[in-house]
TrEMBL record:
Keywords: DNA-binding, Transcription, Transcription regulation. Residues 12-62 form the HTH lysR-type domain. It comes from Paenibacillus nasutitermitis. It holds the Pfam family HTH_1. InterPro entries: LysR_HTH_N, LysR_subst-bd, WH-like_DNA-bd_sf, WH_DNA-bd_sf. The lineage of its organism: Bacteria, Bacillati, Bacillota, Bacilli, Bacillales. The keyword DNA-binding applies. Transmembrane segments: none annotated. This is LysR family transcriptional regulator.
Amino acid sequence: MIDSLEGRFFLAFIALLEEKSFSRAADRLGYVQSTITTHIQHLEKISGQKLFHRYPRGIELTEAGKVFSKYAYQYVHLSQSLKESMNELDQPCGTVRIRTQESFFLTRMLPFFQEYTRNSPSVNLRIEQGSHQDILKGILDYELDFGIVPQNPDRHEILFYPIMEETIVFAASEDIFRKVRNAGVQILNDELFISSGTSCLYHTTAVDVLKNAGITVKDALELSSLEMIKQLVSCGRGFALVPEIAINNELKTGRLKLLPFSSNMRFTHGLIVHKNRELSFTAKSFQSELLCFFNSYMKKNI
């Protein structure tokens, strides 16, 4: 099989996987659409397996395609690492892919992102948003270089580097806060719970805390945007579990109030990487700078 494989086939496979369209994959690589089709056909012939389901609405990986994708990503990243090593780079360049929760990026990572891109203009830093499970899957499938998750996955394939503790709080409008203060937290049984979704670790933690307080979540709204969650909660549409740092301004102005739960909800966010991943020079440099940045940040805020 190895004698028949070419790097351009892998690039076409990944472009099609990520773009979900033959035409967009072709545009991304600067090919005509028929070239992408030919490359995928070559891969399917070489592997002896159908790699993609073709539907009118787009494409999806077959089971064989899901297995193949892990090796395709490894091949591309290994090639990039080899190229950088052979060129004896003195400055980082190339692409680093990292996935994190939106709330962590907006409240914690944005200053690092701005500093890093300013100091390393030749690096294409691709930051994606996802839930805890999305991030973990991206690492396990070799799709990402790094992920930032709110809790150690405790998996033997994953290396976890703790970077920061985060306090999570229940927040609500002044009106709901007064109701809770006057009648107790049980009134939340009749309020809308707003979260980032059931795949979010914050959501599952919130449900457990509420259950222990005698509150059953009957009505929940899932929103991917932290800003939308804050806006809805501020206007009295329900209550939510959010990072405390994300609502500092709203707490100061009184737009939001902390609900009185005794549980101290803290998460240790950390950088994760697949232990078998061959990191490029640029990826190793990125990892070192990120860990150094958060180490310095924590020392300043002790």
